[in-house]
Design a protein that fits this description.
alpha+beta, CBS-domain, 1269 residues, five-stranded antiparallel beta sheet, eight-stranded mixed barrel, Beta-Lactamase
Length: 1269
């Protein structure tokens, strides 16, 4: 299909109008009756008729659209001839014109018929939209579109009860080719332009005939999903041009041949592009899928979990490396076999596997734990997940098994349970042998292959005493108990002496075990491990020993577990020793009661004794009297609770003492002397005081410490709540504290940072010199601040703003460093965005003027050094304003973005494209060998801009581009010179036809300077009254006398020379000076009228040319009225000449302005008639008095009979419209004779008089000169 489309594309390039035109064209004379024209069109079912002269040269065209206009105007057919209603001149083209250019020409003129003529303007044929449709190759394209993609959704409708005239007027006003007729909002028929031809003949009063009685029916409809291929077949088979689109009886849209041609035009290119894009996308998707599959395979192979893939019978199809590591089998050994034949341990029941298979065969995933067997016979616990794999049609094809070895996790879980059990026994104060027995039972249950014993070290004798050895033979246990803590003895002694774990992998071969080989062999042990039991101060309390029946080296997991059991044993022994010491201390305290009283008196801290019965004070030492500010006599008997800020705190303190016997470090608030509140630490115990139960309480004031702690907490709260990261180090430096924000920014945990050097965060982007400078400043000034790049745990580099401060102690010695930092990635991003926006266009994201000028300057410097060439291409879009004005600024913005993308795709390495603003772009090309490279680039850009743009998914537009090129160093050595000269060259290209490029030449600058000087001179001329009016007579052909005069402006330079308006009026139009000139001409003309009236010359009127700007300025009628009022003259003495093209720009607004002028009483004349694309419908509505035949037709009528024929048609047309006709540029007798023969009303030209100054023309008026005198 793609090859076929490419052939279609290649053939389309060669189509010319001569190949697709229809040579059989119905032609008539201009004087034929309109009724006969309509009858011919209706009978032959044709869309147009041509008016030609005797040489078969086209003069005008009458189409179905013209018929609709006549019908809408309800004009009577009688008396109307072809010349009254035809469109002149018809749109013509050469037979060699390219098919696409011809279609673009139709679009620009809004026409549906293109007349093809030869070099002598003789008719060759006609090309209609149908021809374009037939030659589009649509059979190759339409199968890819449906009606819904091209139909117009806003459909004009009219009720069947409305009149034909109303329907025609609506169609004419909205420029519709058809209107759908409805009954109760349901489409029942259609009225088309072709119907207008028929109805114009059939009915005489369209304002009284209901449209439902004459509509075309039954209605031919299609659904929205109908292909365009079938739609085109409907057009051909039913000989129609409109198809109504309905969806379940509701009106959805309409598609006609005109819209279809517009849509299909260029589709072969778009389809090829889309096909190529789809193929590329498909290839990209395949490549991505292959890469994804490879990534999946790599990920599965690299997974830490063991993975098997089996078929539905359980036969292994694939296994990863992790499975080989777990099971001990290689991949080749397992493929083709079942897992049960390899790793099944037999420890799970048959029912276990039945449930597993029932689950996965039902399509559900199964997850659980089981014990399997490695190749070497060892068992392991795994967590297994089996997931079924299904195809798109839900067929089960494979199972994926993911296995994780959880043996260590299960072991740790058991260890945790054992630890909790032992700790419960310790808390319950069970005897030491019971606790040791529990420890050994738990260990031997975890590892059935080992036997364990616990020996306790007697600190006094230094001997190891057997505490428990339930699984050791009695003879072996007895021998062990006799061992002493000597480094030259057993492994237990070695471990006790060194404080480190001792591992004997094989007793029979280890040199240190020679004395014990026989004993070990008799007991059946071949390996052992002795682990020291220590207290919290790292003192050895005993030895935890385990024995193995085979040579064995315990792995790290076993060693960690042995250390944990040794730790539990240490806690048990320490707890037992503490309890023994406590009992001894209690006895000692009871024996030293007397000594205690003496100590209380001399204690360096406050001590009071209070009654347990009622809380009254019984005693207080001297320190207590000083603290509370009362004497011993004043205090005795008072309630102790009076001194507590919160009295209930004493009750809680007493309860704690009664419960525990001794309480220390109990924090409360008390009242000090003077009522000051202080914080104290209480210590208390119960004692006998003079025969009664009493509470001894000592006090240590901690008020300053509490305040310091409060400040620390506040600082910690601030540190934790701030969004900035905080890191505190010592002087080494090593990290000693971090806050949450620090962890969030860096990605590390607190455990990963504490104790580490901050260099762990370095990114590597700063050298050692930078950090040396940082430390130098920090040590000198006590602080450093700046921006730095650091690295997160993930490896991501990020910018941060860092402040490091030194913390000093009271002696002003540095003790800590505090770093406070913020992640400024977002700030950097915003700064980068602001920088981007400062140097780029916000709409297209291209570099802006500032950036491209900087780049050009850099490239100029580079080119200077290396002798290179540069080119600056100034690109201005053609017809952009039309698109912007027609579709709105959003669509215009979309077009600019598409242009930017299209131009950027043409850039070469090193080139830069920028948007200056509006529709102007700059392209800098810096890799040129010569000027021809720049020309090639410019042609490529123009070709790219010439391709259609699809906007908002519905507007296909055609623009173009004009390009100016300046070269370095030939055309300038600075940025300003190169850009200015490229701009000048662009304007030259635009003035010479657009859609082309031009190199800069010095003449362009000279021309620009000349225009600038002329503009300045022109403005000066206005100030110095150098602009004069000359006058050329208009002659009445019937009387031969002067009947009017045209005011023509001249510029008299200071040297006396006269400048023609053709030299300065175009410049005045561009610069806006034309408004001042126009007002000046109007004022001078009215002044001259007043002068001639005062001189008795009242038989003439003056015609003044009005510029397009002046006409559209909105206040022309007021200016004219003011001038007439100023010189007290009647409006009939003033005539305004209006250009045909200016009126057709906005015809409705033009009619409104002209009507205001007519209300003032001035005459209106249509100047240069026939040079534009006239619309007779508007010509009838324009309130004008006369037409001026453009002098190009008058001058060419002798050499070209076609011009004479057109002039004759214009005269005939004007008279039918009740307008007078003025022939402009009559210079010889032949032209005069033609005008007389064709009944022209007036003439103007050198045959009678050239343009004269006011005094000269006054003399001409007074002379009474006539055409014959």
């Amino acid at each position: 299909m793609l090859a076929k489309l490419l052939r279609v594309r290649d053939s389309m390039k060669k189509i010319k109008l001569s190949e697709i035109l229809t040579p059989d064209v119905i032609t008539v004379a201009t004087g034929i009756a309109l009724r006969e024209v309509l009858s011919t069109m209706a009978a032959l079912r044709i869309s147009c008729v041509l008016a030609v002269n005797s040489k078969n040269q086209p003069l005008g065209i009458f189409t179905e659209q013209d018929a609709l206009r006549v019908l809408a105007g309800q004009q009577a057919l009688d008396g109307l001839v072809m010349a009254d209603v035809m469109t002149i001149p018809p749109l013509c083209a050469s037979p060699d014109m390219d098919y696409r250019d011809a279609f673009r020409l139709l679009q620009e003129h809004g026409s549906r018929h293109l007349i093809v003529t030869d070099a002598h303007n003789r008719l060759l044929g006609i090309v209609t939209e149908e021809a374009f449709l037939l030659h589009l190759g649509s059979e190759e394209l339409t199968a890819f579109k449906t009606v819904a993609s091209v139909m117009a959704r806003n459909v004009a409708t009219i009720d069947e009860g409305e009149t034909v005239a109303t329907a025609a007027q609506q169609m004419h006003r909205l420029q519709l080719s058809c209107i759908v007729v409805t009954r109760d909002a349901v489409p029942v028929g259609i009225l088309t332009e072709r119907d207008a031809v028929r109805l114009e003949l059939d009915i005489s009063e369209p304002g009284r005939v209901p449209v439902g009685s004459v509509m075309s029916c039954p209605l031919i409809t299609v659904s929205p999903d109908t292909t365009l291929e079938h739609a085109i077949q409907h057009f051909a088979s039913n000989k129609i041009r409109n198809l109504v689109v309905t969806d379940q009886g509701r009106l959805s849209g309409i598609v006609n041949r005109h819209n279809l041609v517009n849509t299909l035009r260029g589709d072969y290119v778009k389809f090829l592009q889309e096909t190529i894009k789809k193929q590329r996308r498909k290839m990209l998707q395949l490549n991505q899928q292959c890469l994804l599959n490879k990534l999946h395979s790599t990920a599965l192979e690299a997974s830490a979990n063991a993975i098997l893939i089996t078929d539905t019978e359980g036969i292994i199809q694939w296994a990863n490396a992790a499975f080989s590591n777990l099971s001990g089998y290689s991949s080749d050994e397992v493929i083709g076999r079942r897992p049960k034949d390899l790793i099944k341990s037999g420890l799970q029941s048959r029912e276990f596997y039945e449930v597993l298979w029932q689950t996965i065969l039902s399509g559900q995933a199964w997850q659980g734990e089981l014990v399997n067997k490695r190749r070497d016979g060892t068992l392991y616990t795994e967590e297994l997940t089996i997931t079924p794999v299904r195809t798109e049609n839900d067929k089960m094809t494979h199972f994926i098994a993911v296995m994780q070895d959880i043996s260590e996790r299960k072991l740790l879980e058991k260890m945790q349970a054992a630890s909790l059990d032992v700790l419960d026994k310790i808390i319950a104060n069970q005897p030491l042998p019971d606790m040791m027995l529990a420890i050994i039972h738990h260990l031997e249950n975890l590892f059935p292959i080992i036997r364990a014993s616990v020996l306790q070290l007697d600190a006094t004798t230094g001997l190891l005493r057997q505490v428990i050895a339930p699984s050791l033979p009695d003879f072996y246990a007895s021998a062990i108990e006799r061992l002493q803590a000597n480094s030259d003895a057993s492994i237990c002694e070695m471990a006790a002496f060194s404080g480190e774990t001792v591992i004997i992998e094989d007793v029979q071969s280890h040199p240190r075990c020679v004395p014990f080989r026989e004993l070990a062999e008799r007991a059946g042990f071949r390996a052992c491990t002795a682990t020291p039991i220590k207290d919290g101060q790292d003192n050895v309390l005993g030895i935890f020993t385990v024995y193995f029946v085979h040579p064995h080296f315990p792995g790290q997991t076993k060693l960690n577990l042995l250390k944990e059991f040794a730790r539990l044993a240490g806690i048990s022994i320490a707890k037992d020793k503490t309890e023994t010491q406590r009992l001894a201390l209690t006895t000692s305290l009871q024996n030293s009661e007397t000594r205690y009283r003496t100590l209380v008196e001399s204690a360096p801290f406050p001590v009071v004794i209070s009654s347990l019965a009622d809380g009254s004070l019984l005693y207080g030492n001297d320190r207590a009297q000083l603290m509370f500010g009362i004497s011993r006599e004043q205090g005795i008997g008072k309630p102790a609770a009076l001194f507590y800020v919160h009295p209930e705190e004493r009750d809680r303190f007493v309860s704690a003492v009664l419960e525990k016997g001794l309480v220390t470090d109990y924090e409360v608030q008390l009242y000090k002397s003077g009522g000051k509140i202080i914080w104290v630490l209480l210590s208390g115990r119960v004692m006998d005081f003079d025969g009664q139960a009493a509470l001894t309480t000592s006090f240590v004031e901690i008020t300053d410490r509490k305040h310091y702690e409060d400040r620390l907490r506040e600082a910690a709260a601030v540190m934790e709540s701030t969004h900035e990261g905080v890191m505190i180090t010592d002087l080494t430096p090593r990290i000693i504290a971090v806050n949450r924000a620090c962890l969030a920014i860096t990605g590390y945990t607190e455990e990963e940072l504490i104790g580490k050097n901050p260099a762990i965060l370095h990114s590597g982007h700063k050298d050692q010199a930078f950090y040396a400078m940082l430390w130098q400043q920090l040590l000198r000034d006590g602080h450093w601040q700046g921006e730095i790049l650091n690295r997160r745990k993930s490896g991501e580099i990020y910018p941060q703003w860092l402040t490091i401060s030194t913390i000093y102690n009271e002696q002003q010695e540095p003790v800590r460093y505090v770093g406070v930092f913020a992640d400024i990635s977002e700030l950097k991003r915003q700064q980068a965005q602001l920088d981007f926006m400062a140097h780029h266009d916000a709409l297209t994201r291209l570099p802006n003027r500032s950036m491209v000028e900087t780049r050009i300057k850099q490239e100029i410097e580079q080119a200077h050094r290396h002798g290179q060439n540069l080119a600056v291409l100034f690109i201005d879009l053609d017809r952009f304003k039309i698109v912007n004005d027609s579709f709105g600024h959003p669509v215009g913005d979309e077009l600019l973005c598409q242009v930017a993308e299209r131009l950027a795709a043409r850039l070469r390495e090193g080139d830069m494209l920028a948007r200056l603003g509006g529709d102007e772009f700059i392209l800098l090309a810096n890799t040129l060998s010569d000027a021809q490279d720049a020309a090639v680039l410019a042609r490529d850009i123009i070709a790219a801009l010439g391709e259609p743009f699809m906007l908002s998914g519905q507007h296909e537009v055609f623009i173009g581009g004009s390009i100016g090129i300046s070269l370095f160093p030939d055309d300038g050595n600075t940025v300003t010179e190169l850009m200015k000269n490229a701009d000048a060259a662009m304007y030259f290209a635009k003035e010479n036809g657009r859609n082309q490029f031009s190199f800069y030449t010095s003449e362009l600058n000279a021309d620009a300077r000349h225009k600038l000087e002329m503009e300045n001179d022109l403005r000066r001329a206005l100030l110095h009254n150098e602009l004069l009016l000359h006058y050329q007579a208009k002659i009445d052909l019937h009387t031969g006398k002067i009947c009017g005069v045209e005011a023509l402006i001249r510029w008299q330079k200071p040297d006396g020379t006269l400048m023609s308006p053709a030299e300065f009026i175009p410049l005045a139009e561009k610069t806006g000076v034309i408004l001042t000139i126009g007002n000046l001409v109007l004022d001078r003309a009215c002044q001259q009228i007043r002068q001639w009236l005062d001189d008795g010359l009242d038989n003439v009127h003056i015609a003044v040319n009005i510029s397009a700007r002046q006409f559209r300025n909105g206040n022309l009628d007021k200016l004219v009225a003011e001038s007439l009022q100023k010189y007290q003259i009647d409006g009939r003495h003033l005539e305004l000449e209006l250009n045909e093209s200016m009126l057709m720009h906005e015809p409705e607004r033009a009619i409104e302005t002209m009507q205001k002028l007519k209300n003032i009483g001035v005459k209106l004349s249509l100047d240069d008639f026939g040079t534009g694309y006239s619309n007779l419908a508007y010509l009838r509505r324009f309130p004008i008095d006369s037409l001026k035949i453009d002098q190009s037709f008058v001058r060419g009528m002798i050499a070209d009979p076609g011009d004479a024929e057109i002039a004759s048609v214009i005269i005939n047309l004007a008279h039918r419209l009740k307008l007078s006709v003025i022939a402009e540029g009559v210079e010889n007798e032949t032209q005069l004779a033609f005008m007389r023969t064709n009944n022209c009303d007036e003439l103007q030209g050198y045959l009678f008089s050239k343009a004269l100054s006011a005094p000269e023309f006054t003399e001409l008026l007074r002379s009474g000169k006539t055409l014959t005198s």
